Every structure is written in structure tokens, then in C-alpha cells.
Amino acid sequence: MAAHLPTRRNILKSAGGLGAAMALGAGGVLATASPAAAVGDGFGLRVVDRNENDPRLRYYRFRTEAIGWDPGVNVLLPDDYHYSGRTYPVLYLLHGGGSDFIQFDRLGIRNWTAGKRLIVVMPDGGKAGWYSNPVSSFVGPRSWEYFHINQLLPWVEANFRTYAEYNGRAVSGFSMGGFGALKYTAKYYGHFASVSSHSGPASLRRDAGLVTHWANASSAAVELGGGSVYGMPLWNEARVSADNPVERIESYRHKRIFLAAGVSPDPINWFDTVNETQVLAGQREFRHLLNRAGIPHEAHELPGGHFVREEMMRRDIDGIIGHLRKA
């Protein structure tokens, strides 16, 4: 792809799209975060900052050997969490490239889940981490996949009243996060009963491996100091196949699958056009293979390009709650 950086306006419009992964978008932390207490440690994580003052939204920042800096996580609790005594299903919601763990709070996740009995966990995944343990890094560890699956997930289940079982977990995401959701669901078959991809790529090898090249280029520029997710100039082919949704079709059987993509990208926005055109083509390939395998799924093609669609997020959240074990 040609070297071309988006404007700040386009980053905000895309709200963390694949193209925004190439830009050093402004990260955010909660200004009211209080000094951390020595609680909640375990699973290779140490809480170094936290804010539990909001009745619904809890903020944590962790020290972990998996990541060379202290990633943040927002945990959004149901309205009745503190007095109900209930156990809840949990949604792991993954942000897009160029964004951070606060993305969905900025977009309105509190309103989308108001009155709903669902815990939502929103972790950092790196500006261009691609929800992966990279082949190489020159800036220290960036093992996002290990952090999320082996450390954060068990930490959440030890510290909140969640169903620590397959039927109690869902994973969803936007753009790079939508890819991460599809990837995690296939690689960790017994972890998530529901998977959703909002404008997330589902095919790494199509069009001469355009998405794989983009993952490598964006991670090298933004995340890994010249390292890469899949290896450059030669890919680690086994790693690509292990992460590629269209090569893991049987791993989606017996799961709820929700897909959304735009069909009319902005013709004057280069990033928007490339992103959603590739997303749509990959999701169509993925859906064709699901259909051929007889695997049910829900898919939506909608006007517009590469951005988070509130109506699709609300519909997806209702579907997740309807599918998972009830609180």
C-alpha cells in the first residue's frame, strides 16, 4: 500500500479502523484514576492503577511481563451488580486499530447496555497489536494474545461474578478488534459461545495477502519498532493459517456468529475505501464457507464505510444476552 497517513478527522471518523492503525492516535487514561492498592493481583498480573469510584465502570491498569508497558482495561458492570448477588455472562469487547481500551466508552457502551444483565470487559490491544503474539518485536514484549487469554480472562473470572464457562462468554470487536474476536474464537474453541465482527477482516490471504501485509506494516510502524506480527519479508505460514478465520471454518460450528460490514465506502477517503472494501470481500468469503459447511450465522451489509454502527452494536448485544447463560 502507498504511504499515506490519515488526518485526525479521518481517524476519529473511522473510530479505530484498519487504516487508523498506521497513525499514532491519541491514547487516553481516566483522569480521575486513583493510586492502586495491592489487591486483585494474580495470573501474572499486578494492578498498578485503578478507579472503582464509578458505580458501573471500573478502570484497571496492569503490569505484566507479556506487555512492555502497563495496559489498561475497562470493566463495565450491570446496573444491579452491587446488590443483586447474581452471576453474569461476560462480553469481551475489542477495540480497533489506532484506538485503545476507552474506545467503546467514548462511543456509548454505557447507554447500549443500560438495564442489561451483562458484564463488558474492554482491554487494551495495542494501537496495531492485531490481538497477536508477534513473530518479532524490537521494543520489548507485545504478546497481546497471551495477555488477553491466559492472564486477563482468568483474572476477570476470579474478581467478578461471571460465568466461568463456555456458555457464559462472548467476544466481539470492531475492525482490528473484529478480526481479533474471530481469531480468538477459532483458536480457543471452548472459550466463547458467541462471536461478533463489526467491520472486521475475516480473510488473511485473499488479494495476495493484503490484510496480512497490512498487519505486518502497521504493527512494524506503530507497535513493534520494525518487528511484525507474521514475519517479514517471509511470513510464518503456520501462524497465518492458525489465525485465518476462513481456514478455521469448523471451529465456528455450534456458536452464535454475528457479522456486519459496509457496502458503500467514501470514495474520497482512501483509508475508508480500502478498509471496508477488503472487509466486505473477506466477510463474504467467510460467509460463503460457513454456508457451504452448514454453519448458521447472522450477517448484515449496510450503507456506509468503516465505522462503528450503533444500531448493529445494540442488536448484537441483545443477541449476545439472548444466547448466553442468563444472569
From TrEMBL:
Please name the top-level EC class of this enzyme. transferase
- Catalysed reaction(s)? 2 alpha,alpha'-trehalose 6-mycolate = alpha,alpha'-trehalose 6,6'-bismycolate + alpha,alpha-trehalose; an acyl-CoA + a 1,2-diacyl-sn-glycerol = a triacyl-sn-glycerol + CoA
E.C. number, please? 2.3.1.122, 2.3.1.20
Coiled-coil features, chain-numbered ranges:
none
Q: Is Acyltransferase one of the keywords UniProt gives this record?
A: yes
InterPro entries named among the record's database cross-references: AB_hydrolase_fold, Esterase-like, Mycobacterial_A85_antigen, TAT_signal
Keyword Transferase listed? The answer is yes
Origin, by domain of life? Bacteria
Q: Which UniProt keywords apply?
A: Acyltransferase, Transferase
SUPFAM superfamilies given for it?
A: alpha/beta-Hydrolases
Q: Which family does it belong to?
A: Belongs to the mycobacterial A85 antigen family.
Concerning PANTHER family, the annotation shows: DIACYLGLYCEROL ACYLTRANSFERASE_MYCOLYLTRANSFERASE AG85A, ENTEROCHELIN ESTERASE-RELATED
**Protein name from the UniProt record:** Acyl-CoA:diacylglycerol acyltransferase
Which organism does this record belong to? Streptomyces thermolineatus
Its taxonomic placement starts with:
Bacteria, Bacillati, Actinomycetota, Actinomycetes, Kitasatosporales
